[in-house]
Design a protein that fits this description.
The complex is a heterotrimer. Chain A is an alpha/beta fold. Chain A is 36% helix and 12% strand. Chain A has 2 domains: 3-124, no CATH class; 137-263, no CATH class. Chain A contains 10 helices and 5 strands; from the N terminus they run αββαβαββααααααα. Chain A has a 5-stranded mixed beta sheet with strand order 2-1-3-4-5. In chain A, a hairpin with a 6-residue loop joins β1 and β2 (35-40). The radius of gyration of chain A is 20 Å and the shape is globular. The relative contact order of chain A is 0.12. Chain B is α/β, with parallel strands linked by helices. Chain B has 5 helices and 4 strands; from the N terminus they run βαβαβαβαα. Chain B has helices at 18-27, 49-57, 78-95, 113-130, 134-144; strands spanning 9-14, 36-41, 62-67, 103-107. In chain B, strands 2-1-3-4 form a 4-stranded parallel beta sheet, sandwiched between helices. In chain B, β1 (9-14), α1 and β2 (36-41) form a beta-alpha-beta unit. The two termini of chain B are 32 Å apart. Chain C has an 8-stranded mixed beta sheet. Chain C has a 4-stranded antiparallel beta sheet with strand order 5-4-12-11, with no helix packed on it. In chain C, 28% of the residues lie in helices and 22% in strands. Chain C is globular. In chain C, a hairpin with a 2-residue loop joins β2 (23-30) and β3 (33-38). The chains are: A alpha/beta, B alpha/beta, C alpha+beta. Chains in contact: A-B, A-C, B-C. At the A-B interface, α6, α8 and α10 of A face α2, α3, β4 and α5 of B. The structure holds iron/sulfur cluster (SF4) (4 copies). Residues 238, 244-246, 266-267, 291-292, 295-296 of chain C line the site of one iron/sulfur cluster.
Chain lengths: 275, 149, 337
């Protein structure tokens, strides 16, 4: 039995036994190469699930939908390791209760797709895997290219990109970690981030977004894929992830009991830049 | 042609240590550069990165952030948290092209009036050498002009 | 016999228009994005695109636009209106759906109050449409009763020649005729055949959709909740739509001085309808998605007699969760009746 049939029947069983109220997975998309999130509430609907190497979205975003889990019932969700990592982060930030989430895990390696053992978040230990995981070479190369620039060149690089931003907030909406009911950009007393999408306002927004995700990003790439104007958000995320590893030996989402990096400290944290 | 460049420096300081240190510099009649505008906050833990960004946007040439030495925080751990935040924020600004010299961090205690005065002088001189911070100011100018099409 | 413009005359053509006082805009690729941008020569243009990612709307209704500069003094308030300059522009290589988008929005910007910011730009612009030779999976102009060769919103129509050497040229408005008068020597008589227009299949039955939407009992239908479950409420589909036109007025500045701006806004955002009291009449994504569909295929036509969609398909093409107008309208036309 392939993984798709396996998970279809498992999802159907979870629903018919009443263990979960909803299964979030993938269904066919509008074209042959697209998959779209699919929500199944009945065993019949579960038969529509598709699971293959095109299922790259991080569905954990839907777990923090307002009100979804407030009735205490369980939800099952199809997750790749980056999605499981997000769940760890969400639990460590007290946004999810571990026992409300049933994980139907899978991993994609090129065109190969395999099922992951375990159904509860505590069954997965990601530490080793995340730490030893090197980002795709194109990200490393691009990031390196930017590091080699002088500040003025770097500024020009980002200016060209940020000037395209239309403040659609797709990057925020698809991100599982952007769960704030009132994002800082939606706050208008005081208006810290201007609502206008002129280049200066876009710098503000993109810097705030990157900073709010520093040490919290699961590197799923959802924002980068969602951005309709192709701003390389992967690069800032990667740079921030590298910073917290280098400075604090911290890797977000290794487990669900770690303390958020910017809400904790060590007395001997580095401070070479402080006079 | 134009007037000589006078650096504008904005300092965000905590009230318990660095502000008191600045006060001591004043009462001890130590002379330091008049280029600094001090913004007093209860704790370095209250200094949001947004403050730094806004100051740079609104025309600061250098921003200074300063508070109690580690271990001396009036609220026990505000400065430890702040330190982590600055580490990350500094890296982020550098990555997006804001030169690191434009944002300075320090610990100045209530007893260190002399350190404060010296530091302000040094930062002022350094900023004078760097020249005005124009990157954000230019973007601000663009906003204030009407559409070109 | 018709007139044609050869591709190798394009550089001269741009130069002639510039000489006549026009700035020339065309699809370009820049910084990993395709959009309309100013060009100086033919090689700046990106002709291989089915559609640029960004719409032509950006150049008539920019994402953020200063309206008024104000200063509040002790005695008086000074203000200065910041209208765009009169700049003559040619938009070359516009797709029929983008051009139609402009025509669809015209009544909106002019019905009770004539929006100077929009019309100044409209009146100074000449739209040169190129008939499509290629369509992708998302194109749906025919479904909304337009077509890959529609001249709606166009001033000049270009039909690609089958041999790829140029375009058949035809002015379809006075403005278009005037534009062609600036390049008489670059046009030649010819009877080369034109390339075939792509077949774009109709994806839904628009009449059935409109009928369903018009029926009051469907407003609270469970359909809306089910179809919009996966919508994450970003504004991509509205901001990339050539006909979406909602905006917000914001004052940027401090107590004494600032600029009043007109910024894009989107019905996908929960803040769009949020009241000061905290009450939000559209407090779920399903009510917001319903608004988008209803506005486009019911309210707008009620007021202006035309649907607010030109079928470009961008909403589906760019949606991070593969939603879009097409799927929703397909589902509506397939609903049991
Ligand atoms: S998705 Fe892209 S365009 Fe939209 S707000 Fe984010 S960075 Fe800006
Ligand atoms: S339909 Fe897609 S693009 Fe539009 S708001 Fe929803 S998620 Fe965003
Ligand atoms: S609703 Fe979608 S298909 Fe219609 S004009 Fe807008 S973006 Fe294009
Ligand atoms: S669909 Fe929404 S954003 Fe677009 S014009 Fe209508 S109300 Fe405005």
């Amino acid at each position: 039995m392939g993984i798709q049939e396996q998970y279809r029947s498992e999802a159907a069983a979870l629903l018919s036994s009443g263990e979960v109220k909803l299964v979030i997975g993938f269904g066919e998309g509008s074209t042959a190469d697209r998959r779209r999130p699919l929500f199944a509430r009945t065993p019949e609907e579960a038969q529509k699930f598709v699971l293959d190497a095109a299922c790259i979205a991080n569905l954990s975003t839907y777990l923090v939908t307002e009100g979804l889990l407030s009735d205490g019932k369980k939800v099952a969700v199809f997750l790749k390791p980056d999605g499981i990592r997000s769940v760890n982060i969400l639990i460590s930030e007290a946004q999810l209760k571990p026992d409300q989430v049933v994980i139907l895990g899978y991993a994609i390696d090129k065109a190969e797709i395999t099922a992951l053992e375990g159904r509860n978040i505590s069954d997965f230990s990601l530490g080793e895997e995340i730490r030893s995981h090197t980002p795709p070479p194109h990200i490393l190369q691009e990031a390196e290219r930017i590091e080699e620039m002088n500040p003025a060149e770097r500024f020009e690089f980002w200016k060209a990109h940020f000037s395209k931003c239309i403040k659609c907030y797709a990057c925020r909406q698809v991100c599982p970690m952007c769960y704030c009911r009132r994002c800082i950009v939606d706050v208008n007393q005081p208006q810290w981030v201007s609502t206008s999408s002129h280049t200066l306002g876009n710098f503000e927004w993109n810097i705030v977004r990157a900073f709010h995700l520093a040490g919290r990003c699961a590197a799923c790439g959802a924002c980068d894929r969602a951005c309709p104007v192709n701003i390389p958000l992967r690069l800032v995320n990667y740079r921030m992830g590298k910073e917290v590893i280098d400075a604090f030996d911290y890797c977000a989402g290794e487990n669900s009991s770690q303390k958020p990096v910017l809400a904790s400290f060590k007395q001997d944290d580095p401070e070479t830049f402080i006079l | 042609m134009s007037e000589p460049f006078e650096p504008k420096i904005v300092a965000f300081v905590c009230t318990y240590c660095t502000y008191a240190g600045a006060d001591l510099a004043g009462t001890s009649r130590l002379k330091y550069a008049p280029n600094v505008r001090i913004v007093r906050l209860p704790c370095t833990g209250r200094i949001s990165p947004m403050f730094i960004l806004k100051a740079l946007q609104k025309g600061a040439d250098t921003v200074l952030v300063s508070g109690c030495h580690p271990g001396d925080c009036h609220f026990t751990a505000g400065n430890y948290h702040a330190r982590r935040r600055w580490t990350v924020f500094r890296a982020l600004l550098a990555f997006t092209g804001i030169p690191e010299e434009r944002i300075r961090f320090s610990w100045v205690s209530a007893a260190e009036g002399a350190k404060f005065a010296e530091m302000i002088n040094e930062i002022t001189e350094q900023t004078r050498k760097l020249g005005p911070f124009t990157q954000y100011q230019e973007l601000q100018k663009v906003i204030e002009t009407q559409s070109t099409y | 016999m018709t007139r044609i413009l050869l591709r190798n005359k394009l550089d001269d053509c741009i130069a002639a228009w510039q000489k006549a006082g026009f700035s020339v805009f065309a699809p370009v690729r820049q910084h990993e994005m395709s959009s309309f941008g100013e060009v100086q020569k033919a090689s700046d243009m990106a002709f291989d695109l089915v559609l640029p990612e960004r719409t032509i709307k950006d150049h008539f209704f920019p994402q953020t636009e200063p309206l008024i500069k104000y200063k509040i003094g002790k005695q008086q308030i000074d203000s200065e209106t910041m209208t765009p300059p009169d700049r003559k522009r040619v938009f070359f290589g516009v797709r029929p759906c983008d051009a139609s988008g402009l025509a669809i929005d015209d009544p909106l910007f002019g019905w009770d109050y004539k929006d100077d910011y929009w019309f100044r730009r409209r009146d100074n612009s000449v739209i040169v449409t190129i008939v499509c030779t290629e369509a992708d999976d998302f194109c749906m102009c025919t479904s909304v009763k337009l077509s890959p060769e529609s001249d709606k919103g166009a001033d000049v129509m270009l039909r690609p020649l089958a041999n790829g050497a140029g375009w058949q040229v035809e002015a379809v408005s006075e403005r278009g005729t005037a534009l062609l008068e600036t390049i008489p020597s670059l046009l030649q008589e010819n009877s080369e055949p034109t390339a075939p227009v792509p077949q774009v299949a109709e994806k839904f039955d628009l009449e059935k959709v409109m009928e369903w939407l018009a029926s009051k009992e469907n407003f609270e239908s469970q359909f809306w909740k089910d179809i919009s479950l996966r919508c994450v409420g970003c504004g991509s589909c509205t901001f990339l739509c050539p006909t979406c036109h909602c905006f917000d007025i914001q004052d940027e500045g401090d107590t004494y001085a600032g600029i009043r701006r007109k910024n894009w806004d989107s019905c996908s955002f929960s803040l769009f309808t949020m009241h000061t009291s905290g009450h939000n009449p559209r407090n779920t994504q399903s009510t917001r998605w319903r608004q988008r569909i209803m506005h486009k295929f019911n309210y707008y036509r009620g007021k202006f007699g035309v649907n607010s969609c030109s079928g470009c398909g961008r909403c589906t093409r760019q949606c991070p969760v593969d939603m879009g107008i097409t799927e929703t309208l397909q589902a509506i036309s397939n609903l049991p009746r």
